[in-house]
Design brief:
Elements lengths: L3 E8 L13 E8 L4 E5 L6 H9 L6 E6 L2 E2 L5 H4 L1 E4 L11 H11 L4 H14 L15 H13 L6 E5 L7 H18 L3 E5 L2 H7 L2 E6 L2 E6 L1 H6 L4 H6 L6 E4 L1 E3 L2 E4 L2 E4 L11 E5 L4 E4 L1 H4 L4 E2 L1 E7 L3 E8 L2 E8 L9 E4 L5 E4 L2 E3 L4
Parallel strand pairs: 3-8, 3-9, 6-7, 7-8
Antiparallel strand pairs: 1-2, 1-4, 4-5, 9-10, 11-15, 12-13, 13-14, 15-22, 16-21, 17-21, 18-19, 19-20, 22-23
Bound molecules: adenosine-5'-triphosphate (ATP).
Length: 361
């Protein structure tokens, strides 16, 4: 297991980059703590796989260094880095049995045969495929093959880190949940440094202690699921995390008030020195809908468009001053026909040029 440091990592697939737009990764400094469970989360094309391949050694970065426990690994192959990597699609040997596939990484490293038997038996049990131990991998379903791939990544105890690139894409939804839970318990049991690439927030938030949110080759925020929910550092993080994501409104700040079209939103702090594009964000969970008579001066007219039942909650969709707003209410909440919205001032966040600002004391 190792602490992994990224020192000024940038990467361009263009051999002659001339501008920022030519870089798949812009400038990334980060330290992955020994034994941490991390998710790399972001939309398609933001650079997750590129970053993972730089960490594993499949790709050499255009700029910067990769250190494992302070040793420079930038130019070393994946084998020399002693990592395990699990890819989106199964990487297994069809002509070998399931047990032989699981044993392969251990045989390769000369592990004692009694130890191999023990670990393979453990892994077969963990992945609930013991009944298939002696079957050839050929002819197994995609799910089963991917389980074996995961097992091959997890069977070694001595790796510096285990890297996963969207490993559950081909797995059916029920099994996805099971395997994710399994990965989490294996992490707790063995304490490997794990880095898990996904564009699915549920996967990221349930697997990881810390989530690294990326956009267009930059890391926007690294935080626990709670930090990303409570204090998104960038409007994209607010929007991307949550279902539906944070509501974002353009406007102007004057002291402790935010002017949104013709209405004023109360803030819990003053914001004196704001320049550039100013926005506020509030999550759908922190807006209350009430009638005009109960709303008081804080109430903003909410133009109701639809109400969607999603089990124990309802998503109320509409707009305020023409800006799309989603509100989450408990399923038994009565939504007035002509609702007024009240924002909880403690939960309103202020953004300048898309980045969170903390406000005056
Ligand atoms: P996805 O979730 O779709 O896998 P990602 O976040 O993993 O996306 P990357 O695959 O790292 O994103 O791609 C980042 C950027 O680099 C994209 O613009 C992609 O088109 C580009 N890119 C990736 N691999 C190559 C390559 N071999 N040659 C040229 N451009 C590439």
């Amino acid at each position: 297991m190792a602490q992994i440091t990224l020192d000024g990592i940038a990467h361009s697939f263009n051999p002659y980059p001339t501008s920022d737009a030519d870089y798949a990764l812009k400038n990334i400094d980060y330290q992955w703590e020994d034994g941490g469970a991390y998710a790399l989360l972001g939309p398609s094309g933001c650079g997750k796989t590129t970053l993972l391949n730089i960490i594993s050694g499949l790709l050499t970065p255009s700029n910067g260094r990769v250190l494992y426990d302070n040793n420079d690994m930038t130019l070393l192959t994946p084998e020399r880095r002693n990592i395990a990597q699990v890819f989106q699609f199964p990487v297994i040997y069809d002509t070998m049995t399931v047990a032989e596939n699981l044993a392969f990484p251990l045989v390769n490293r000369g592990v004692d045969s009694s130890e191999i038997d023990k670990r393979v038996a453990d892994m077969l049990q963990t992945l609930e495929i013991a009944d298939k131990a002696n079957r050839r991998a050929q002819g197994l379903t995609a799910d089963e093959k991917q389980k074996i791939s995961l097992g091959r990544g997890l069977v070694r105890y001595d790796v510096s880190a285990i890297l996963f690139d969207e490993p559950l894409t081909v797995i059916d939804p029920h099994m996805k949940w099971q395997l994710r839970t399994k990965l989490k318990s294996l992490h707790e049991q063995f304490g490997h440094t794990m880095i898990y690439v996904t564009h699915d927030q549920t996967e990221a938030l349930t697997f990881a202690d810390k989530v690294v949110v990326m956009l267009e080759g930059d890391v926007l925020q690294v935080g626990t699921p709670e930090e990303l929910f409570d204090n998104p550092a960038h409007t994209f993080v607010g929007y991307f995390i949550g279902s539906p994501g944070m509501n974002i409104f353009p406007g102007t700040v004057a002291g402790k008030t935010f002017r949104l079209g013709s209405v004023d939103v109360q803030l819990n702090k003053g914001y004196s020195q704001l320049t550039g594009k100013t926005e506020i964000g509030i999550r759908p969970e922190f807006i209350t809908l009430t009638s005009e008579s109960k709303a008081g001066p804080q109430g903003m007219k909410f133009n109701l468009e639809s109400i969607e039942d999603v089990g124990r909650q309802k998503i109320v969709r509409g707009n305020i001053e023409g800006i799309v707003v989603n509100v989450i209410v408990e399923e038994d909440t009565e939504v007035p026909r002509e609702p007024y919205a009240i924002f909880d001032p403690e939960r309103v966040r202020v953004y300048q040029d898309s980045f969170l600002v903390s406000g005056d004391r």
